[in-house]
Structures are given as structure tokens and as C-alpha cells.
Amino acid sequence: MRVGIELASWLSLGVGALGAAQSNVPWPAIPKPQSVASTNGPVYVYPSSVRKGLSSGFANNSANSDSALVFQSIGDTYTLDYGSDVAGKPIFHIQVAEGNPQIEVKYTEAFPGLLKAEGDGPFAFANALGATFRVETFNITKTGDLSGYFIQGSQRWQSIKLISGKKLVIQRAGFVSSVDQSPLSSMPGYFASSNSTYTYIWALGPRTQQLVCFPPESQTSTWEITSNGAYIRGQKPATTARVVNLSNYTLSFETMIDRGGTGWRVDTEIDAIQATGPICKYTSNPHTTGHITNPLILVVLTSEYPTGSFANIDKTLLPPNTLVLGRGWSLQNQTSLPGYVLDKFPLKFNVTEKTWHTIRTESPGDDTYTVYLDDRLIAHFNISSYGISDPNPYIPGGIYTSFAFGPWQDQAAYVRNVNVTLSTGENVYSNAMTSEDVLVEYGVQSNTQYVCSDSGKRDRFSWLGDRLISARTVMVGSHQGEYVWGPAEEAFSRQVGSGQIPINTLFSPLDAEGSLIRTTNVDPLIVDYDFDFMQVIYDYWVRSGNDTFLEKAWPRMVMATSYALSRSLDQKTQLFGAPYGSTGTPLSGEKGQALGPANTVSMIIGLERMAEMARFIGDNAAAAFYQTQAQLSRTAIDSLLWNETAGYYAATLGGTGYDLMDIAQVLLAGIGSEQRQASFVEKLSALRVQAGYINGTRFFDTPGIVDVYYMSFLLEGLALTNRTALAQDLLDATWAPMVNRDRNYTGGYWEYISTDGTYPGLDLFTGMSHFWGSYPTVFLSEYALGLRPTKPGYSTYLFAPLPGFKTEWVHGRVPTPAGLIYAAWGYNKQGKIVMEITPPAGLQGTLVPPFAGSYSVGNQQGQSGNHIIAGGATVIIVQE
Ligand SMILES: *[C@@H]1O[C@H](CO)[C@@H](O)[C@H](O)[C@H]1NC(C)=O
Ligand SMILES: *[C@@H]1O[C@H](CO)[C@@H](O)[C@H](O)[C@H]1NC(C)=O
Ligand SMILES: *[C@@H]1O[C@H](CO)[C@@H](O)[C@H](O)[C@H]1NC(C)=O
Ligand SMILES: *[C@@H]1O[C@H](CO)[C@@H](O)[C@H](O)[C@H]1NC(C)=O
Ligand SMILES: *[C@@H]1O[C@H](CO)[C@@H](O)[C@H](O)[C@H]1NC(C)=O
Ligand SMILES: *[C@@H]1O[C@H](CO)[C@@H](O)[C@H](O)[C@H]1NC(C)=O
Ligand SMILES: *[C@@H]1O[C@H](CO)[C@@H](O)[C@H](O)[C@H]1NC(C)=O
Ligand SMILES: *[C@@H]1O[C@H](CO)[C@@H](O)[C@H](O)[C@H]1NC(C)=O
Ligand SMILES: *[C@@H]1O[C@H](CO)[C@@H](O)[C@H](O)[C@H]1NC(C)=O
Ligand SMILES: *[C@@H]1O[C@H](CO)[C@@H](O)[C@H](O)[C@H]1NC(C)=O
Q1: Which residues cross the membrane (predicted)?
Q2: Hey, whose CA ends up nearest to atom 14 of ligand 1?
């Protein structure tokens, strides 16, 4: 789907719309949601533009999108532009295939990825029910439809290059979509403005949701179980959690290489969140305590590359008949995921394909490793001799390691009869790998729950706290609550006895043992996400009125809150003092060492929301406890962190400096007096860059890029405190570049943006359909239009546009459990503000005019102050 075309037709809709009859209102009719026929079967998406060669220069030219792709010589290449992000399994309708053609296909969100050998990947961060590699090679043996195996998680650009064969004609190439392609106009939520920039920014929210939130069974398994064992195509090796922290043991398995080679890891962290960490602003503690000191080795064994092998194999990286030893995330670097090739062991004999081999890896626990192929020693090495130190410069290591299987890009191999034997002779693991349970054990089973990813293409984990912003985007846009309660139930289903819930988790269903190990292994990452998660549930409850969900989740919420408090509350100061605090905490922060305002505010708001929900549940003792603790911490920030001379809340106890998340959070919680807040907000100007605000004085990470997640908090803080000019300025600076129809446009929100707003900030790694920074969708509905709930289920709500927001008009629909609220406001020909609202019956609204002075309501003139809206009928007020 092309969002652009979509929006254009959406804007011109007048049929069946509200407000069409009024002539003296400045806005066009507010459309009703369009009904769409539900589709069964596969949905195909095709490029909007196809061009021979590598080119980004034709973004708006769709004239040639229907012509066939004709490849006549090796090296012939086509660029396919989808106009905005799509996702799914690649499909090629092959018309002519002469001489065994092979094609190399690349995928990328940002165009420059096509210019790189590895596309915009590899994304070796998570076992994510999607492709790890962004380059795939296909062997074309016949005409007809050829479909890829892996889901490619999000891309706007694709290239296809002939690397072998005589002649190939692809009548059409595209994707079988793995995400919802329903038109945005069918969603209950809607927003438009006289300034189409805002219309388009709003629409980034629901489209990003489609690209990152997945219904059950939509993200397919990445392993296949056969009677010959697990058939594993090239991808990030997936770990078992059945046996952990092995020492002095031998791992043996049988493998049959189908193409290219086979791969495995030993002594590797489970789920690999900590492997030579990604840039992660939440985790800044460099202490090595708790680090895995194990080698985390990655091994790829290549075949002899028989005739017919892929013509594009990188034989420098992977020579034939060679054991390639690596560590880190993979054998290639990708932005902040370093990989290391440590050694290559050429074999003196051929490694045959399509025959069974037995591989034994001995790990006696003294850093030496010995690998045997069919009882012949093929490699012996001491991992510490390579001088690659302990990974994890930023992230505390998990406590569990195990082994994993997964060959390199374009390789494929069977793995069966896996055994682990200790030096004592005891067999501790034995698995024929022929049972479907293997998929759950290794975390590569198709999702059975509603899950939301951080990003379409990468970091395909279900992160807990990143939804603080995006869960509200879901509710004001699609109103598909299953994308809030679904991931919440997934997290609760993996809660362990301590109350801990996984901060990030796989999409795959897990068994009890896998949940326990994998959840525990992400402790103590980002404890404040627990408090953010309680806010997510509150925000969902308020916008859905789903009491049933709240009642069901409540005991688990209490457990998780207790766990988070025990892990993070510094009793001495009442400030947040997590062992590994979030949001750029200083390079210190053992528990007991108090941190700055930002994390403490997460805790405060989390506790206050818990108190409100506890009162609803009838748990008054819990409510009182949460409320009291929140109040103590509020007082602590104001009394311990305020620096009167400098005029800011200090980022650390007894320290100096501040940062923008502290400013945002102080506004969101309303910490301190208005004067202190005003003084603190003045500090923002020093952090201003063209595309928003960058780090204050203490962020060590992602220097020099604008973090759209942080900007979301700041935007809300500015809106909540009626700082309209600053809020609108930020909206324009950070998000307007994302709706420029240039080669970077994806139709989705970006994760980061460069300081000048010209480029998605974190190189090719940047998620360009990333949900965490999606606050503008909420801002535009709740503050620019001005419709926001004040009680669960919108039983009471405000129609209170931000005074002074610059626009000629805005209008839209906000979904509530009682039905849609239609509303609009704008300036009439006389330059007076007109406001109109048509809410469902049963909800009580309070209209707060964004101007001082009087107004008329219907025939009643000279009204002033707030106006109560009963619901069930249209109300129009006109400024006098
Ligand atoms: C090893 O493989 C190469 C490439 O397939 C082949 O040319 C060679 O004959 C093989 N050697 C043996 C001993 O099988
Ligand atoms: C591609 O297909 C041809 C013809 O079936 C076969 O000979 C060759 O081995 C295949 N190559 C790969 C890499 O699968
Ligand atoms: C990845 O980058 C690191 C430096 O950050 C370098 O030491 C290493 O060799 C690189 N790995 C590869 C495979 O190029
Ligand atoms: C491993 O076990 C063997 C046999 O029990 C023993 O000789 C050896 O010292 C052990 N290795 C280490 C590093 O403990
Ligand atoms: C390894 O395990 C498989 C199946 O679990 C078993 O059938 C096989 O005999 C074992 N092989 C060895 C060498 O221990
Ligand atoms: C409330 O949440 C539950 C999940 O706990 C879900 O099954 C149900 O459909 C939701 N109800 C509404 C009205 O959204
Ligand atoms: C307040 O901040 C200033 C720097 O702006 C610093 O010199 C001073 O020591 C701080 N005061 C306290 C009490 O930390
Ligand atoms: C942002 O952080 C980087 C790296 O820590 C630092 O060099 C830069 O000066 C910081 N910017 C501001 C405005 O503080
Ligand atoms: C902001 O304005 C709203 C009315 O739109 C008002 O209810 C609220 O109290 C104001 N907030 C602050 C912090 O001034
Ligand atoms: C629309 O908003 C953008 C910023 O997002 C601004 O640059 C532009 O001037 C506005 N257009 C009008 C007509 O106000």
C-alpha cells in the first residue's frame, strides 16, 4: 500500500461524513471510517517503481512499475522502490529461466543499503522470526512463482542482480505481505489538518503499528523440523535454554550441509542481548560484575562448494573447506553490533554436501576448544589468545550461556542427534531434533500471541518499556487493544517467581523452563521499564475501559512492581538507584547510589498509576502504600536534586549537569514549583539542534543524534504544561522530516534522526518503522485536536486543544469504548475560533476553549469558562 495515495483519497472523502452541512466552518467534512472487505489468503505488495541499474532517483515515477525485469547478462541489476515500507516473504513470478539463473537480492529501508554488500543488515540482535541477513541468493530452477523462506521485516528498497545463468525474465517481483495492509482510512482513529504535514505525521502511527505489531501465527518459524532433524537456513544461531552454563563438556551433533556450510555457537549468552552490546542508552554501567567471561564463540564450517554453488559466495570471508571462527554478534559488523573473525582453519580434505557428518566440539573450560569432524581433528585453539576481551562494554552480562545452531548467510544444513556429555561421561543433553517441540525449545516457533516488535526489520524483540509511547498510539489510531493487552499477557506469562517480567522477550512461544531461564537472563536490564509498563497498562485501561483485563492482570502487576521497587528504590534517598539505571545514568549507580530525576519519575508515575488502579480494584492498602512511596520520591527529587545556583535538577545526587530526559520527566510528573520547572525548561535551548534536542551533559551514548523516543517524552511534557510554542516547534523539527517524500520516506516513524534532520540517525541500523517515538500521533489527537480521557473508558474526557497551536483547522475521530468522538476546531472567516464535537451518548465531556473571553453555543451567547458536553448530539461553539 502506498500511504501517499491512500492519504490523498482519504482527504478528499466527503461521502458519509460529518460536518459537511456547515458552511461557516473552516474544515472539510470529517470522514467516517471506510469499511473494507476482509481478505482471505495472501496479500501481495509490489513496487511502485522499477528501474534498471541502481538508482534512487525516481521515487515518484511509477510509470514503469509494471514492466518485466529482463536479465540478459551477469551483473544486470534492477532497483525496486516500494515508495514506502513493506514487509513479507519475497516472491518472484518467473517467466524465463535459462541456464540455471541465480539472483542476489538485497533489501534495505534507507537507499544507501543497496550500495553495500550486506544491504542494511545483518540484524544479528534477536532470533526474531524474520531474516537475519538482508542479502539473499536464489537458485532459479524453473518458471512460475518462486517465494523466499524468511520474512524480510521492513524495507522500502530492493535490488535484484543476476549472478549466474543465461537469461532470466521476472514478470513481476514483490512480497507476500507478512503485515496488515488494511487501508488506514478503515481505522477508527483519524486526524487531519489544514497543514498536511500534520496529517501525514499522524498517519505514521497507524502504519508503523501495522509494520511492527503482529497477530498470532503471522510471523513464521525460521527453522523447519523434518525426519532428518532441524533444517536450518542461514540465520542468527538460536540457543536452547535446556542446559545452561556448561563447563568441561563435549557438544556433538550430526549435520548434513544442504548448501554452503553449517554453523553453531558454544558458550554463548542465551538470547544474546548482551553480546558485545548494542548502543543502548539505558544501560551504562561498565562494571564487569556478573559478566559472562565465556568466549561466546561462533563457528562456521564451509563445504567444498561443489559445482552449482552460489556464484556470490564471499570466499575471502568463507573459503571452501574451512572452519571460520568468530565471536561477537556475527562475522560482520553492523553499526553498533560488532562481530569478529578470529581465525580460519583450512581443512586438508573436502567437506561434502548432502552427506552426514558428525561434529564434536570439546570445551574443557580452560578457554581451549577442539573441534572434530568425523573424528578428525580440524581445529584446536585457545580463545583467549585472540585478544578480544570480554564483550559488553555497556551491558551487564546475563548469567546463562548455552549452545546454538545457525549457519551463515545463504547456507543451509540439517542438524540432528545433538548430545552434550560432561567430562565425567554423564550425558546431560540428547535431542534427535526431529520433534516439533524443538522450535519452542530454541525460541524459533511462529508466534502464538499478539506481539509488537521494536522495529519492523531489526531488534525484533518484544520490549516492555518502549510501549510507553506506542501503546497510546495504538489506542488513538487503530484502537486494536490486542496490541497492548496481547504483548502484556505475553510478558506476564513469562513472569518468574521473583516478580520479574522480561524486559525484552522473543516472539516465539516458550515452555516453562525456557521462560524461567530467558526471563532471568535479562535481569537486571532496565528496571525502570517495569514502572513504564505499569503506565502502559494504565494508559490502555483509561482508553479502553477494559476492567476485565486489569482485574486479571492485577496480581501480576503487584508482583512486578514489588520486584522493581526491590531492585531499584534507594531507601536512603528515596530516589531511583537501580543497579543499571536507564536514560544515561552516570557510569556508576550500584544500588544504593541514587540517580537523577528521569528514572525516579518513571517510578513515581508508575506508582501513582498503580495507586489509582489499586483504588479501582479495591486494594486500598496497596493504594496507600504506592501513593506514599510516590510522594516520598517526589519530595526527594525536589529537595535533593535541585541546584539553586545552576537553576536545574541535577542529573545525579550531589552532581552537576542535566539532560533533556530529566527536563521531560520533571514536566510530566509536575515536580517542584512552576518557577523551578520554568528555569529547568530554559536549559533546553542549549541542547537545541535543527532536528530537535540532543543529549545534555551526561549521555555517553549515541552522541550527536536526536533520539525520537526522548523527543516523544519531551513533546508530551511540553504539551501537558501548555508550552504550545515549544511543543509545536519540536513537532516540526523532529517529525516533519519523516514525511518528506524523498528517498528516506518509509511511511513509518524513525528510531533516530540526524541532528540536521536529513538522515535517519543511527546509520543503516536505524529502524525506519520504529514505534517507540510515535508520540505525535497521540499529541495530534489529544492536544492539537484536544480530545483526551480523564477517566477510564472516556467516561469523562476533555475537549481542550492546546491554546495557540498554529493551524487553520484540525479535525478527526477518536475511538472510545462507547463509539467514535468526532471533533474539529479552526478559524472562521472572521478569524474567530469555532469548535465542533459530536460524541457518543453516555460520555461526559468538558470543552475547554483555547481562548480567554466569551463564546456562543448555538443561540446562547456570552458563555465563558468550560462547557459541559452531554453526548449524543453535535455541539458547536463560536468565539465572540
Ligand atoms: C574436492 O572438491 C573440489 C571442488 O568440488 C573437487 O574439485 C575435488 O576433486 C575434490 N577433492 C576430492 C579429493 O574429492
Ligand atoms: C541450483 O539448482 C541447480 C539445478 O537444480 C543445482 O544443480 C544446484 O546445485 C543448485 N544450487 C544451489 C546453491 O542450491
Ligand atoms: C568490527 O569492528 C571492530 C572494531 O570496532 C574490529 O576490531 C573488527 O575487526 C571488525 N570486524 C570485522 C569482521 O570486520
Ligand atoms: C575437565 O575434566 C577433566 C576430566 O575430568 C579434568 O582432567 C580437567 O582438569 C577438567 N578441566 C578443567 C578446566 O577443569
Ligand atoms: C545422541 O543423541 C541421539 C538422540 O537423542 C541418540 O540417538 C544418539 O545415539 C546419540 N549419539 C551419541 C554419539 O551419543
Ligand atoms: C479486555 O482484555 C482481554 C484480555 O485480557 C480481552 O480478551 C478482551 O477482548 C478485552 N476486552 C475489550 C473490550 O477490549
Ligand atoms: C550547582 O551547579 C554548579 C554548576 O552549575 C556547581 O558548580 C555547584 O557545585 C552545584 N551545587 C551543588 C550544591 O551541587
Ligand atoms: C553529547 O554527548 C557527546 C558525547 O558524550 C558530547 O561530545 C557532546 O558534547 C554532548 N553534547 C552536548 C550538547 O552536551
Ligand atoms: C493547561 O491547560 C489546561 C486547559 O487546556 C488546564 O486544564 C491545565 O491546568 C493547564 N496546565 C497547566 C500546567 O497550566
Ligand atoms: C505546516 O507545518 C510545517 C511544519 O511542520 C511548516 O513548515 C509549514 O510552514 C506549515 N504550513 C503552513 C501552511 O502553515
Answers
A1: none
A2: 350
